[in-house]
């Protein structure tokens, strides 16, 4: 149990995909302007991470390793992620058109989000069992959603501020990301 908690905290805070590994920066900067969009994107990425990690773990464990074809792992993982994103996109479009419209182009971008592929590869390379892989994906997804929500909250407040003209828009977003990264670095000393 302690190992699962350690994996969760490590993936969510210490080795956060956005702030420590610099993966998933496109949705981080693109969707973090509004809190509602950021939370929706974070939850969608979390769902895809959980599903993709579970499915890729099973494929690796029961197909790739027994048949000694691990060399196609990345290609198979990308196909699994792309398929899952398409299924989730269709489900969101049929059940919640408002959410689908709010996510817009960013939902298909989950297909190419390297954080989703990253958590699946980490689970495989670390030799995690299914419970450890799912906890790693849950931690990574919640860490991703947490950072998106924090960043969007800060950016919404900054829209009300009057920063110098040269810092408006992306420059101030990069500065905020830098300070968030420094803040999350402190979690490394806790584990």
Question: How would you sum up this structure in a few lines?
Answer:
The protein is mainly alpha-helical.
Q: Which secondary-structure class do the elements indicate?
A: mainly alpha
What's the overall average pLDDT, rounded? 90
Beta-strand residue percentage: under 5%
- Total beta strand runs: 0
Distance from N terminus to C terminus (CA atoms, Å) equals 15 Å
Low-confidence stretches: none
Description:
The protein is mainly alpha-helical and 191 residues long. The chain has a domain at 26-152. Helix content is 75%, strand content 0%. The protein contains 9 helices and no strands. It has helices at 2-14, 25-31, 35-64, 73-95, 97-103, 106-109, 114-125, 130-160, 170-185. Helix 4 crosses helix 5. The longest helix has 31 residues, at 130-160. The radius of gyration is 17 Å and the shape is globular.
Give a quick set of tags describing it.
globular; 9 helices; 191 residues
Question: Layout of helices and strands, plus pairs?
Answer:
Blueprint: H1 2-14, H2 25-31, H3 35-64, H4 73-95, H5 97-103, H6 106-109, H7 114-125, H8 130-160, H9 170-185
Helix pairs in contact: 1-8, 3-4, 3-7, 3-8, 4-5, 4-7, 7-8, 8-9
């Amino acid at each position: 149990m302690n190992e699962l908690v350690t994996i969760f905290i490590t993936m969510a805070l210490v080795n956060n995909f956005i702030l420590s590994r610099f993966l998933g920066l496109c949705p981080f900067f693109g969707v973090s302007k509004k809190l509602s969009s950021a939370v929706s994107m974070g939850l969608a990425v979390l769902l895809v991470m959980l599903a993709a990690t579970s499915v890729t773990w099973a494929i690796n464990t029961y197909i790739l390793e027994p048949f000694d074809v691990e060399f196609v792992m990345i290609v198979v993982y990308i196909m699994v992620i792309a398929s899952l994103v398409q299924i989730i996109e269709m489900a969101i479009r049929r059940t919640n058109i408002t959410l689908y419209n709010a996510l817009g182009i960013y939902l298909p971008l989950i297909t190419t989000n390297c954080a989703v592929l990253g958590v699946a590869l980490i689970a495989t390379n670390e030799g995690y069992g299914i419970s450890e892989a799912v906890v790693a994906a849950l931690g990574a997804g919640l860490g991703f959603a947490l950072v998106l929500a924090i960043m969007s909250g800060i950016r919404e407040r900054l829209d009300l501020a009057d920063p110098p003209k040269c810092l408006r828009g992306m420059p101030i977003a990069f500065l905020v990301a830098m300070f968030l990264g420094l803040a999350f670095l402190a979690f490394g000393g806790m584990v």
